[in-house]
Design brief:
Helix content: over 70%
CATH topology: Dehydroquinate synthase-like, alpha domain
Distance between the termini: 30 Å
Radius of gyration: 17 Å
Number of helices: 8
Structural class: mainly alpha
Oligomer: single chain
Largest sheet: none
């Protein structure tokens, strides 16, 4: 396993972080980031991990509003063939993201050790904070607070 002293690994991570920042600067972020931020703030989960926890569910929530765009992502990822129709390809992306999270053992909030009562108590506040961040407004489907609550509920366990 590489350590912090591995110059090649550090260089690759810096390049990846720079490329991600360039992408965010050119396109902004959307729902997954907006609902992820409050998880990190309230439960001290790294932003990347909370994004991973949410990514399949948020994609499934959003995919019907922009199947062509999600299909392009599925094809680029290799989760769908060029010959797959957009809806089928977009659905394959959702499946591929779920598989990837399982393969990488991305925990649910429950698996991470978050108490369900505390989670349920804070999710209404988190939903309001997510909406206030502005990120959900960039999503193909702009959710209501109740829909964000459903997403939080769906990913808990």
């Amino acid at each position: 396993m590489p350590t912090g002293g591995d110059a090649q690994v550090r260089e690759a991570m810096m390049l990846a972080a720079t490329q991600a920042d360039i992408a965010f600067s050119n396109s902004s972020v959307a729902l997954v980031h907006g609902v992820s931020r409050p998880i990190g703030a309230h439960f001290h989960i790294a932003h990347g991990l909370s994004n991973a926890m949410l990514f399949p569910a948020v994609t499934a929530f959003s995919v019907h509003a922009a199947p062509g765009r999600y299909a392009d992502c599925a094809r680029a990822l290799g989760a769908a063939a060029i010959t797959d129709g957009d809806t089928a390809a977009a659905d394959k992306l959702v499946d591929a993201l779920g598989s990837l999270c399982r393969d990488l053992a991305v925990p649910t909030p429950h698996d991470y050790g978050i108490d369900q009562d505390e989670w349920n108590c804070l999710t209404p506040i988190m939903a309001e904070q997510a909406l206030a961040s502005g990120s959900p407004a960039n999503n193909p489907v702009v959710p209501t607070a109740d829909e964000i609550l459903e997403l939080y509920s769906r990913i808990y366990a």
